[in-house]
Write a structure and sequence with these properties.
two-stranded antiparallel ribbon; alpha+beta; six-stranded antiparallel sheet; globular; 7 helices; 35% helix
Length: 285
């Protein structure tokens, strides 16, 4: 909270919110840690009001940014730590939180959890440092209860590429602003209609997908991930918040002009070939 307050608040479409879990070996002996994730309390068992609430655990897939600079984030689910060693793991926690709503008390209290080889109990972060996330929260940066569409697009595309170990992320924020402008604040309840709109966008503004042209599967994966993410978040999206209205038309015009230029060049080349291949009859007399 202090760091976010000291820095300029970024545009929601420029960032992806992740959780960083730091594990430090403060003992004198080496140890092996595994199953790094979260633990929280859920509902009480039915007809057993005197019992403690059910404990839930989750071990998200670690995320390692490509070509990372600065702190080193580990990629894996098991680590060997020597005395005074530290390992940091980045994980996506918002999908986990949203999947367990509504919570019994209207709030989920997340604590980092890790298992240590040779020990029976799970090691938890201190209760003082737990994260309290209310059911109506959609972001940890600010108090807004809605998200712009570009934020959902950036998160969906970015996480899909990070999970697939892609070495090239491209300009995800540029893509999110263009698609946000192309959808023009509308999203149908018909799956086929939305799918066709996304396909037309991919075809007309191919400049955004040049970095993925070599892998057609990646481009298709991104479009299906986008479709699912927008469907999941459509109730909390602020459809009137469009960063750059009409920015997508610039690329459509450039694409059409380029196609027209190519067509004219091909037509001119064919005309030249035809003129060179034709010959007037020679009067030998």
């Amino acid at each position: 909270m202090s760091e976010a307050g000291a820095l300029k608040k970024p545009d929601p479409g420029e960032v992806i919110e992740l959780a960083e879990i730091v594990i430090e070996n403060t003992g004198r002996n080496p140890m092996t840690v595994y199953e790094i994730g979260f633990r929280w309390f859920g509902k009480k068992k039915r007809d057993q009001w005197w019992q403690r609430r059910v404990r839930h655990s989750s071990v998200p897939t670690p995320i390692r940014p490509p070509n990372q600079e600065g702190p080193f984030y580990a990629d894996g689910d098991q680590f060997r730590l020597e005395p005074n060693d530290v390992v940091s793991v980045l994980v996506n926690y918002w999908d986990l939180v949203r999947s367990h709503r509504p919570s019994p008390m209207g709030v989920i209290e997340l604590r980092a959890a890790v298992r240590v080889a040779g020990r029976r109990r799970v090691k938890l972060s201190t209760r003082k440092t737990r994260w309290r996330i209310t059911d109506d929260a959609v972001t940890s940066v600010g108090t807004s209860k809605t998200l712009p569409l570009r934020s959902v697009i950036t998160k969906s595309v970015g996480l899909s590429l990070l999970y697939s170990k892609s070495k090239t992320l491209g300009d995800v924020y540029f893509l999110s602003r263009s698609l946000e402008a192309a959808l023009e604040g509308t999203w149908s309840d018909d799956w086929k209609t939305n799918h066709e709109r996304l396909r037309h966008f991919q075809k007309d503004s191919n400049v955004h997908f040049m970095v993925y042209e070599q892998d057609q599967m990646t481009a298709s994966m991104l479009m299906f991930a986008l479709h699912g993410a927008i469907d999941d978040y459509k109730d909390v999206i602020d459809w009137a918040d469009i960063a750059q209205p009409g920015v997508h038309k610039m690329f459509f015009a450039e694409a059409r002009a380029e196609e027209m230029t190519k067509a004219i060049a091909v037509e001119a080349r064919d005309l030249k070939a035809t003129s060179e291949g034709s010959a007037e009859p020679v009067d030998e007399g």
